[in-house]
Queue: 4 jobs
Job 1
Amino acid sequence: MMIDKLKNWWGSGSPWIWLNAGAVSISLLLVIGILAMIMVKGMGHFWVSDIYQLDYHDSKAQPRTIIGERIETAEFSSKLFEEVASVKAPAGVDVIQRVLIKSGNRDQASADFQWIYAHYITKQAKPEHLIKLERLEWGNFYGYLKDVKEQGRVVASEKQAWDELNHRFQRVLGLRSELEELEKNSISSINYGLERLRLKKRKLELENKNSAENLAALAVKEDAFKADYQIVIKRLNLLRDEIKRDSATFITADNKEVVVSLHMLVSILKPNQMSVVSKLGHYALNFYNFIFEDPREANTEGGVFPAIFGTVMMVILMSILVTPFGVIAAVYLREYARQGPLIRLIRIAVNNLAGVPSIVYGVFGLGFFVYFLGGNIDQLFYPEALPAPTYGTPGLVWAALTLALLTVPVVIVSTEEGLARIPKNLREGSLALGATKAETLWRVILPMSSPAIMTGLILAVARAAGEVAPLMLVGVVKLAPELPLDDNFPFLHMERKFMHLGFHIYDVGFQSPNVEAARPLVYATAFLLVLVIVLLNLSAIMLRNRLREKYKALD
């Protein structure tokens, strides 16, 4: 009887429903778990941790003082400790605790991270006057403030030093902001203008139009640029002298005095005196800087704004390129081509293209788009710039085209499915009312299949935004000094190289000389990449849902 019930239950298909539901649930839990781990490890990097002062004495070295942040803790057996450290474990201790300390001061020591054993710590404290400096170079600095100097002369010490330090640091931040504005905008615009004039002069020579009149007109513009350049350079030199005026003396854990120029600092904090509210405020500021600042220190410090900008710009450009190609191909295959063996073969080829490794597309993009197409564009339209390439080198437009080629099969298949779902009587009704086939296609079929087109675009964006391998060949670089979009004509410079979040993760995670410093940035950037992809997809999904509501006849 029981066997019959089991047979009936098995034959009803219920086990498969439960297995399917279980598989989906496990997959969702795994995805959520991975995202939660990335978020915790990445977003925790921006929290302001307390600074510890530890008196440390192991069995092989002299007693010393360590100042730094606790990063993580690891535990292992005393037996393993004895094998690794070649010393006896403390009596009665079965589990040894090892602590990773970020001690900073990389310019004073060989490394800014060190592992220590908890049982060798003889004293632990969190002095309120410990200071954390985030620097433009050499990472963090930890120590005590001794005095503040102006042009090498002490202007404040002891209790007055902290307030004076903050006051002068705010002045430095203002000067640095003006310096960056002049260097990134004014100097950049002048250099860009001078380069364009040089190319125009070279073009006149190639076309034998370098008459005295034409050259004189260019010389006037060149003199104007040079005059502006001298004014800006004069102001820059004044600012550089002003910003280097102030410095401060700090005392390290080993009682060494270190003089730090304030223009090399990013932030000054006393974490042990900060309340939870102030730490939350600084957490938000750190995250904001991570989003909107440029990277520094071999991408292990600073922000990722150029990578975010490059990723979004490339995906938008790729979407603009892939949509018409995919839709036109699908319309031809479904609406115009005579169905037969050849069309079936083309569909098989399109489906197979979706399975080609992405690096193959990168090699094709490098050979065809960059060297062949870009090289010929340079020969035809930019001969004055040769032998330096303009479009005959990896850049944003070639990366977008390569990814458009990679994702076009997804758009074709999705659009074809949308076209196939449109009822035949709608086509016939439109034709019966006197519309041509082209008008029927443009006014009836394509609008009603737009949700399917958007579905294909969503899938294309999801894949393209995370691709790295082909981009390494056709446009992505470790550090791009200039964004593809600026206020210099023609504003969008599609020939420029760019940064990408996916490649940034690879570079920081596998090419960084400072592994411990780079690790939290890998998680933070990975989480940010997921957020960018989700936001791009949500935008497309919202548009698709609006189109579905507009064309409910499909249902």
Note: Residues 358 and 470 are 6 Å apart (CA to CA).
Job 2
Amino acid sequence: MNYQARYDEWMERLSGDDPLRKELESISDNETEKEERFFQDLGFGTAGLRGKVGAGTNRMNFLTVGKASQGVADYIVSQGKDAMDKGVVIAHDPRHFSREFSELAAGIFAANGIKVYTFPDLRPTPELAFMVRRLGTVSGINITASHNPKDYNGYKAYWEDGCQVSSEVADGMTECINAVDIWNGIKRLDYEEGVKSGKITVLGEEYDREYLDRIESIAIHEGDELDLSIPLVYTPLNGCGSIPFRQMLTDRGFNNWKIVPEQENPDSDFTTVGYPNPEDPKAFALSEKYGREFGAELLMATDPDSDRFAIEIRDEDGNYIPLNGNQTGYLLVNYILEGRQSAGTLPVKGAMIKSIVTSTLSTIIARAYGVEMFETLTGFKNICGKIPYLEENGYTYLFGYEESVGYAVCDAIRDKDGISAGMLVAEAAAYYRKQGKTLYDVLMEVYAKYGYFAEDEPNIVLEGIAGAQRIQRMMKYFRENLPKKVNGAKVEKVIDYINGYEEIPPQNALRLFLDNGSWFAIRPSGTEPKIKFYFYSNQKSWDEAIKVNKQIKDEILSLINSVE
């Protein structure tokens, strides 16, 4: 069925007063828009669903979310009564329709005989991941688009290990979703009726307390070891983080902090921030304003579902500088290992995990402490999915992260967690302040001791059908025209992950290593309409590393941009 036939079907099936039909009527003469909305079904994969909210098969709406929920329910039913009785826990973020989509999903699972747990209001993604293991459910669902722009929403799916679903489970769910008749094949139960009947259980605040207790149990230094008067500024970027983050700061004894007031409460339009991604330094504009007024030494931010975490710190001149995900990772790796060693709790067989596109400086730091750094594909279903392997082979998990400001510091939470990462970074800042040092001082010490690395992670956004096709052409062209030299440096090694590499499963990604201490990687995003690049250079000074890295980046981006 082509896009026009799908459009016509929706127009015929939807009632005249349905908002989705009215939206479709408004684009009746716009062929490009109709094609974008109906050329495919919104894809379900290991990241679940993600797309713009609106009418169409390629959009997030009550029909596509309903179809996905019925398909996931069918998959759970196929696993047997034990899986149905274990049930599903569902959360949501503050985005448009997040609560409505979560209640729709809860009603569908309940109508299919599956036990359902929900929260009374929005909750962070990492708390949802924690609750899957805490409650012993077979699955978890969070209605969120993470850090995407305001017109997006998504549907994150978790399995009983507390990780986002594996490729195998996602494939099984996809098969069931594809078999659902979107018009007549969805079983529904009214949410409120489900709660009254006991088929849907709304979790109490005691479960929030358990999540925070588990996070706070990973503290490395406490009490007199910390300067708890360190001035801090935090922003949840109008997302889920406000309540748990400030409770965590209070519990840990921090007594000199401020939340950005304009961004403290949920706002589906993210009015004061625009693009709510803490990776983007522009998201810190208001934090910097209050930081200067408050004299803050550290600025912290979480994204709308509080799984990503980023910081800005003061440099030697007192200016706020944003740290990328790798740099915050260096500080965390160094602090965890240094702290565990000084406390005598560094295990004999310790292990950390990073993604294949994350800086190798953290590997150097880990090895200096006798800790092994494992690599996985991008995504925390892969990073945290490696934890059982480590446990089975006698390793003690210490930390996992990737460059896109995602950190998993607690083995009981099998996903990135901005709340627990924020706790350790604030703790580290307070610990070093007690010693008369700032986080900037420590970062410079890390570079001086282990190597001056420059990092840059640009991306090219290419939306729609034409954008997706151009990204495919870019990857194809690069594979067929691999450079022998880049910026005068010889390409010593190429790893193409398209068919897998050693123990790492297949992914559409390339990684090239140069003979001057530099390397870079290229891959299309799995959740956003963009092609992503990762550039790293290790040189004798930070300035030289930045210079070399920029030259390599400019040459590769020029080559890629030449592909029409």
Note: Residues 542-561 form the longest helix (20 residues).
Job 3
Amino acid sequence: MFRASARLACRLALVGFGQPAIAQAAGLETWLLAQSADVPRGPGMYLDLIKLIPVLLLYLLWVKTTHWVETDTRELNNVRYEMWNSIVFFAGVLGFVLLFLIPIYVLGLAMLVVAILAPLFSYIHVRNQMVGEYEKVMTAYHIGEVLNDFLARFGIRRVFNKDDDGVDRTGPPVFFLGKSAGGGQEDPSRVEKAEESEYYYGAKQLIYDAVSRRATDIHLEPAGETTQVRYRIDGILHAAEPFDRASGDALINIFKVLSAMNIAERRKPQDGSFAAKVDGREIDFRVATSGSRGGEKMVIRILDNKTTVTRLDEIGMRPKLVAQLRELLNQPSGLILIAGPTGSGKTTTLYACLRDIDRFLRNVVSVEDPIEFQIENVTQNEINVKAGDNFADKLRSVLRQDPDVIVIGEIRDEETAGIACQAAMTGHLALTTLQATDAFTALRRMRDLKVEPASLAQSLSAVLAQRLVRLLCEDCKEPYKPNPEFLRKANLPPDKVDVLYRTPEAPEQICPTCGGTGYLGRTGIFEMLVVNDAIRELIRSDASENAIKAEARKNNMIYLLEDGLRQVIQGKTSIKELQRVV
């Protein structure tokens, strides 16, 4: 049988390679026949178990690594999923083929090892360039963490990745502080209690990952046997790797402990806060929980002072609008409303206005719920709902503190709206935010809050409405010729708009800068209704919204959509994004 197979193999070689290979094939046939003559055949097993064991181990390694590469490429979103999965899989297949074709066992085994490890380490090298320091694999830190996890199964405390002084500072550069956000008094017992959990380092990794990806919120949502994790980045929720249900519940408990919340209460809503140092800078986190049918859900708001825009000319306003707003901020009295729906950046604009006011010559007092950012030389008051505080009572006490500027976090009820108008009429400059879709809807909202037209007309100086649009990634945005019909509908001159920009239609590879989303960061689009004498009379007479719009248009007011088109023409955002927002 073996002689016949040898002759057949040689003849196939002749057919496949032609006449130049005849001499080589004849020599191969002679060698194979000689080998078969020297090897005695008889009863028994022809399988060498000792040689089979390494092959099985390498097979299991190959299965494990291909599964890991598939999972990892799906999570990263900035590496080529199809390419790397194909390379790792087919390289392993080739290695096993070579193992059975090469007659020398050691050489075939070496080729299999190379076929499995070479593409694997190539992928590791590429993916390590795209992730943070503490997300890299096969580094000294990563190997130490794997060994720590292995030793933990036998009850051995962490041994590797410690400082020279023996202090355990493992994991990402996240150090939880035993205090509430913005608070000065630390409570180390919170951190000590949280460190007792075996999932403590998972909590650090979650926080580090969210901050590194510029997330503003972390959503931990129970879903059957898992806990889903989603990050809000640039206003859009993005799914992250989920946890199993036990791990997810443990992480929620850790954050509840850090926030001084009751871990036994899982149905009633709870609020809390904590702080942490991430990469050396202190960041505040606001935590809110609520019971649901599937279990307890948690949302963590990330308040990073470093990423917060602090100047009016950095939030997307056109220069003329910045000059108008600064002129209003320098007035001794009046009410300035900043309107927009939830998540439209109202608070960021409010703080930008505060930073533009001369806080050394004017007494600035704020009433907020909660205080999101600390501002120098501003007396900031936080509403303590649990203690029975509310905006109206706090505002009455603030008015007795001789303020020049009063900042109200948000108008939520009739009493607060009335006091804000009264403060503006009695010689104070009042700044506040209001939930409304545009500047004209804000006027109707104030009327819905029982503010008299005469009082509103006398106190109101301006209404600034805004939205946030995502900015196109500069590294992957692509130009295109706009449709002339669309330009005409948008009141844009077709002869002056040669090109617009959009996200890539069919990208060849995922952009590492934006992670394949096509957008990076956000900016604001604005409209401002400045209340002059004519508009003041229309408000006092409770005129219709259309009448006020017509008068505002006479004063060259630019609407939200028009300001958004300005950003589109400048190549900062896309038509599709503008349509999503406005």
Note: The longest strand covers residues 460-472.
Job 4
Amino acid sequence: MASLSPMQGALGHRHAAHLLRRTSYRFTKTKVDEMAGQTAGQAVASLLQLYPLVHDQPIYDQNEASGSASPGTWCLPPGSLPPTEDFKLRPWLASWWLHEALNDPGIGHRMTFFLHQFNSVAITAFLTSHYFDYLMLLRWGALGNFKKFVTKMVVDNAMLKYLNNTDNVKANPNTNFAREFFELFTIGKGLQIGPGDYTNYTEDDINEAARLLTGFRVKGPRNTLDPETNIPRGGTNIDQHDTDPKTFSDKFQGTVIQGGTDDAGMWAELDAFVNMTFAQPETAKNFCRRLYRFFVSRHITPEIESDIIAPLADTFIAAGFEIKPVLEQLLQSQHFFDADDSDNKDEIMGGIIKSPLELSLQSIAFFDLPTPTPDSDLEAYFQFFGRGIYGRLFNEANLPLFSPPDVAGYPAYFQKPDFYRQYFNASTIVGRYKFPTMLLSGKMTIGASPDEPLGAKFDVAAWVKNSGTISDPGDPYVLVQDLLEYLLPEETDTDRFNYFYNIVFLDQLPPADWTYEWQNYLSTGDDTEVKIPLGRLINAIMYSAEYQLM
């Protein structure tokens, strides 16, 4: 029986590593060791926080064409005018977000990405500064009230452009946003049960919602701020709003929402519409299913539906649609840690294929790669994050970050039955498998100009020597054991361990050979003979099927 009962006692290393892999892009030995001695409640509490940003907005090179870096910002204060050639700013915005995600010790950026997948907008929808506002709204809602978040998303400038609601007028209602509001952002469609009739709403409901949403407009100058979030948003135009009553079907208990006759009335209509949608139990269940698939497993059986999804939805409703209580209940549960049945190695842990985000950022964090910052080296920072990770790796590995190919988001999170298996197939595997070489060589390796510098390089010998991750680097058995313990989601059996130890690392040579070479490296500083087997080992671990899982 699947159980939401909390885990008891200290987590231990295996459960702590599982929790951190699933919740944060910053996977480090230090954090795993810290959480291993904590209870599930203590560990989850340390993760469910919005930690301060390193930089409050993107930084870009104002003189990119001149060859002399000149740092500049363009998003804050909100009324700032965007620079020319706005499309060039997109990779700088992505670089900023990735750098912040890498340095976020909590769940904030992973939940931001969850909400982005749930309420998708492409970066090409509007100016890049408006997309920054969209990302900041996602961050605001990440651990907040989902009902409030959805209401504010209605008038987000980027969303208004992306789904054409800024063109929604009373004389010619546009149903694009209204349809996705129901189908993707809140209640979900359910099965079709008749012409224009779905489980949870009808085509007539979409038409009525479109009428209600007429008159909401973008505010391009970004000088209209939401009074609660202080984030720029769109506004209202009562002249283009349908002021007649809107009548919904029996799916919504025949609710009638009176038309507003002024700007305040439009906002009151919107609140009534959102209240009506969230009054349906299926809205909470749909949210919890999406959350479950994102953090736990793609498999939702009748047992999971009754024992996990339904109680989570009850928690969600009782908490007034606050997200944090649902996460607390799920992430502390015996079910999340695969401890609610007799076989604790068959379902959850190691059961999700890492997206390119987890694969790249968690690797970079664990190996403590000395990545450049916009303060230390602006060009190298952009080369690494903008051109390397965002431009090369993600595109080859089937994650066009912030450019979802579908209004529903990235197929790996919604397309049945494969879901995240789409991140590991014939068309995406090459990018994933070239990533270790990128780090170890300090070169792009993927796509055109593979010898182009990456902007950072993993010095594996120095890391093994100085990081403290390996308890005894001179002992090859301990070295391999320590790495596998942290880098793979499950303990390896004897045959698998011997593959990494004897075949890959020692190359079937005596263990004493490694100890000799390591001592020679320590005394002379010459890493020639130690970086070769270390490189083989890191490559083999990161190539392994187990490393692709979390």
Note: The CA atoms of residues 141 and 149 lie 5 Å apart.
